[in-house]
């Protein structure tokens, strides 16, 4: 949250609303990721999730005053929350 406040012209309310929206959009990811883990196994799903998370973090490089919509950060946050559920499945 502090990153977005420091690097974008968004207000605290806008940043909070965006992060809340990202979290709500991530809620259905758990059951979807669980189905993928059942079908393909935990390791391949986790590898894809880690790749998606890396791409999401790379999106932070373009988030700034020219890109206040922070779409990349929403995708990364949703994916990170889904990946946490997938990482618990790896044994």
Put simply, the count of helices is 5
Secondary structural class: mainly alpha
Q: How big is the Rg? A: 14 Å
- Overall average residue pLDDT: 77
As a percent range, the share of strand residues is: under 5%
Shape: elongated
Largest sheet geometry: none
The helix content, as a percent range, equals over 70%
Stretches where pLDDT is under 50 for at least 5 consecutive residues are none
Essential attributes:
0% strand; 91 residues; 5 helices; mainly alpha; single chain
Layout: helices, strands, pairs:
Elements: H1 2-7, H2 12-26, H3 29-40, H4 42-59, H5 71-89
Helix pairs in contact: 2-5, 3-4, 3-5, 4-5
How is this structure best summarized?
The chain has 91 residues and is an all-alpha fold.
What does this structure look like?
The longest helix is centred in the last third of the chain and has 19 residues, at 71-89. Helices cover 77% and strands 0% of the residues. The chain contains five helices and no strands. Helix 3 packs across helix 4 and helix 3 (29-40) packs across helix 5. It has helices spanning 2-7, 12-26, 29-40, 42-59, 71-89.
């Amino acid at each position: 949250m502090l990153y977005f406040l420091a690097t974008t012209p968004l207000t605290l309310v806008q940043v909070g609303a965006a992060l809340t929206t990202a979290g709500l959009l991530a809620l259905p990811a758990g059951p979807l990721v669980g189905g993928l883990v059942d079908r393909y196994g935990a390791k391949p799903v986790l590898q894809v999730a880690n790749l998606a998370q890396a791409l999401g973090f790379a999106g932070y490089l373009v988030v700034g005053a020219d890109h206040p919509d922070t779409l990349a950060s929403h995708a990364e946050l949703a994916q990170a929350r889904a990946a946490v559920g997938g990482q618990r499945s790896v044994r």
